[in-house]
Amino acid sequence: QSPLVESGGGLAQPGESLRLSCVVPTLNLDYYAIGWFRQAPGKEREGVSCISNVSGQSHYADSVKGRFTISRDNAKRTVYLQMTSLKPEDTAVYYCAAGDACAGHVWPHWGQGTEVTVSS
After folding, report:
1. How far from 45 is each of 15, 36, 41, 93, 102, CA to CA, in Å?
2. CA 24, CA 1: separation in Å to the nearest integer?
3. SS (HEC) of 69-97
């Protein structure tokens, strides 16, 4: 079983919203920062957002700041990415990952991804 399982992707029109979920069935969320990444067709994977396990602080890429919100519910073992005002350039496969810190570059645990398509 994958250590992280994403869901919530799909087709949305520009301006609409989607909420992605990342369920973490086996890892202890107290020990991990959770990040959301995305990879658009023909492009490199990029970091989108991250939420710290220590401070609870959230971080966002400039391209999504003000439109996306990350949150975590440790009791449900789930991290969410609320995406609003979606744009065609948000089209990508979205992955969640668990790592030691949002500022770190080591993300040892990954989900399999959920696809988001923004198109009219």
Report:
1. 23, 10, 10, 9, 16
2. 11
3. EEEEEHHHCEEEEEECCCCHHHCEEEEEE
Span 29-82, pLDDT tens digits: 889 999 999 999 999 999 999 999 988 899 999 999 999 999 999 899 999 999
Buried b (16+ CB within 10 A) or exposed e, 78-87: bbbbebeebe
Closest CA to 101 of 61, 64, 54, 69: 54
Segment 91-113 shows an average pLDDT of: 94
- Answer yes or no: are the C-beta atoms of 34 and 27 closer than 8 Å: no
12 pLDDT higher than 90: yes
Give the 3-state secondary structure of residue 13. Answer: coil
* Residue 100 falls in which region: left (phi positive, over 0), alpha (psi -120 to 50) or beta: alpha
- Residue for token digits 């979606």? 86
Question: E strand or H helix at 117, and its extent?
Answer: strand 114-118
Q: How far, in Å, CA of 21 to CA of 41, rounded?
A: 22
